């Protein structure tokens, strides 16, 4: 299928890798030619690393790279596409205008998806004649390393569009979750916010350090979450499954959550302690280098998950 | 070092494996001889599986197993121990009485640790003459597969006791997090409760299915959390680190958490939907078999994390 990436920044350039890896033609469009060059140079760097981890479906990096082309003309980029993925800055006026252009110029059969995390699809898709074929497909960046994609319909998105977008994402090796209706923060940012609020409270109230909280998640809770998710985890944590778990532990959880009814200012005094903790473990000048480490660990984790699913079951 | 396991049920028998794997002598005590037999039979089953995954530090299963002995006499079990780990049922009267016995019978230099997740150490350790050497070391079961241990002092626990318990846990291959003071749910159950409350709300309010929530965590959020934790994750998610992240995203998170100011009844109508979803993926008769699968995946994940830390860095 031919696809278009609308906006070739940090998010768009990562989508391009995911789409091309699946064998799709990828037309990258950006107003800024430097962004297009940077996106293609980025792919040149990432594709061999993915191949080395077995995350390129057996394709040669050069063959994947050859599917990508840069475009500054929007109509040209959209010509004949089946899926267009918009990844412009998070401004509602900009997205409204851009989606008007997309809806005008893309083939009537094309799915028009936004990568937004901050805006509801209804806030910039309502006015479109083709709003039934528009929705949000929100990645955790970069999607070529993080399978989950949030597929979020506006009230006007057709069920066929949702199914087509989810199917396209599955074909790209993503694992789409399909929301039934839109809500601020979708699923992932809401869950992350819920967890982070309690992380900041615990440090602000002097119960633990940021590192101690990180230990509890990375060497504790998130191990099972990383291959089961929270519902399957509790389903297996009581003899009678999830209903039994709720009966045994709901009162305890309700009591704990009743103590979480206030928030602390993340940028207040607690930030001095958190930043000092982090800086002691990672000098601030090494953040970019550590991001490279993170992506290598993510690639290795994905390779492990695939191997474990094949050997042990999923 | 000689150690004692006080209460050989689900938690105690798992601690025995962690302690013996580190080369410690383990005296298992239980009032119920059947529990002692079951604990040793359990070890006979688990140790070869750990060895196969390289999680036995190169020891032979039989050598680890030989370090364990069953005891029905408490004074005998505690004779000469450096660390005693209580894993009795979660009843405060029972733990108060048991700790009185432990404090009377264990060598003065021994650390007395409880595995409780539901009780604060102050609620059953205040009355003890040796309360300075008492604390909580709370595992996520089983500790031989989940490194994180919550080390929780009561107001009377000495700093030396905290340091000694944490050092002992490190020696057992655990990764202890040290709380500065006690709070209901410690760190891990609080964070899990915060996340679960929003999971149940999202399903109850019709935004997503249980499986879609699980996808968002297992193929999204928890990938990075499983090797970095939440604070390092956000430290790497803004160009200027964690302070920059707070400045960029605090307003969004505050807005989301303001929408989370009510809870839904987990055992109410939402449970029908969640249980139906889970049962469709895992027939209720297969829960025990799936727990075996979970532990095999956990072992493989741990082996992966060690290999990745060695190859890529930690």
Structure description:
The structure is a homodimer of 314-residue chains. Chain A is an alpha/beta fold and 314 residues long. The first copy, chain A, has helices at 10-21, 33-52, 61-65, 74-78, 92-105, 122-125, 159-171, 188-204, 210-235, 242-258, 269-281, 287-312; strands at residues 2-6, 25-29, 68-71, 83-86, 111-114, 134-139, 148-153, 175-178. Chain A folds into 2 domains: 2-178, 3-Layer(aba) Sandwich (Rossmann fold), CATH 3.40.50.720; 189-281, N-(1-d-carboxylethyl)-l-norvaline Dehydrogenase, domain 2 (Orthogonal Bundle), CATH 1.10.1040. In chain A, strands 3-2-1-4-5-6-7-8 form an 8-stranded mixed sheet, with helices on both faces. In chain A, helix 7 links the parallel strand 7 and strand 8. Chains A and B meet through strand 8, helix 8, helix 9, helix 10 and helix 11 of A and strand 8, helix 8, helix 9, helix 10 and helix 11 of B.
